[in-house]
Amino acid sequence: MNKKTDSNLFFYFLKQLQSFFINGFLALLPLGLTVFIITFIIRTAHHWSTPLLSILPEAIRTIPFIELFSISIFFISIGIVLKFVILRWFIEKAEKIVRRLPLIKQIYFGTKQLITALNPQDKTHFQKVVLIEFPRKGIYSLGFLTCQNTSLLLSHTTSSEGAHKRFYNIFIPHTPNPTGGAFVIAPEEECIMTDLSRQDAMAIIISGGIIQPDQIGCTHT
Fold it and tell me: Are 151 and 169 in contact, with CB atoms under 8 Å apart?
């Protein structure tokens, strides 16, 4: 009996040690990876910038982290050249070809418009983040209000009770790939406006709800 009790205590002790080890490892892993990545970047920048630093005056070479600054300027210069000269020319030529391909054209330019709409500088595409009951009543999904719907698709409402209703076009992204999703036309009263930014909403959608903002303000329209 005593041997069995001692054995149980021993395995319990080992299990606790294993739990402590895993908790400590996972707690320090993000910090360790961050330090490793930053150290790698600094060493790489120092190695790549050695030829450039060798031709600079001694006073400049003694400035702390001058290698990071010099390599950053180099990458920025390359980025400017690619974006405004080579890359822009290449993209324009490629898009001319894509415009001639029936199915690929719709997919490419639709995806491009979606990415543009997610740009923080863009204020014209995704106007608000909304909550809407989708795919059925009682289940809510995050969606993006794109605009008020004024198309002829809703012309039948002129002779019904919904004659004076306001409808919105809503895009509901899929998880974890937000470039695909569902498009719905919903009446104004069924859209719950939120205070979420587009970036916070995309973080929630892509992470499957793991990442959440501290507070979401909601108002019915």
Answer: no
